[in-house]
Amino acid sequence: MDSSNQPVSSPSEPASSQGAAASPAKAEGSPASSHSANDLPQCDPTQAGGELSASIQSLLGTIVIAIFVITFIVQAFQIPSESMENTLLVGDYLLVNKLCYGGAGPGDHLMPYEQIKRGDIVVFHYPVDPKQHFVKRVIGLPGERLRLVNKRVFVNGKPVDEPYVHFLEPANSPFRDDFPRTDILPFGLDGNWWLQMRKLVENGQLIIPQGNYFVMGDNRDDSQDSRYWGFVPRENIIGRPLVIYWSVQDTDRGAPNTLSGRLYHLAYAVTHFFQLTRWDRTLRLVH
Question: How far apart are CA 104 and CA 90, in angstroms?
Fold first, then answer.
């Protein structure tokens, strides 16, 4: 800064006069010292405690509402496998309506809940391991008779129109493509289901017991479904997917299953969010 703009003292003034000029600002009774300690703003502990209590109550209320919504209304799920292609892809994140079908309880008839229909996509507890969640499409309803002939589904002797089905290869697996077969024991078949199925086949058709549903993946040639592990009990069904709220390209394939590999994968996904997001699938309704 230019020194010509700085205040300077006159050479003719004694040095003591400069100190005298500054001393009035610090003297008793001057405006700077006229305020007492009682005049300063005071912190009210009661008011601060009330604000903190209100913030905590608001946070707890938000948590309770979130838990209620997740428990009873909607829940988020991720598609981990190719069994529902091309309807649902690996990397699709779904919001599932848990109220649409009710709770399979005696009071459900009093509420306007929907009935589970053929063609509905449902999320359910995997009957073999209920801790896992599966997503499949309902193909057979309680009391119906079902069979597959050369990959074509027949229910009660009539073919079913399935525009959503995706095939990868020609018919070359008798158990998978011409279901049910009691003379073939394919790889991956659940043993308990094998014994149960043999008792429910009549005239080449599988009889679906009351309270159970037969489900299959849209990717018929690459789906572990009711053909291999059996029916889905009504009480296992959680709800129906509503919307794909986010869809991201599958970058897990080939990633090393180590801590460093997972951390690298996570960092890559975060830093490439816009490039990896499948924007054409995000916010798409599921049907």
Answer: 30
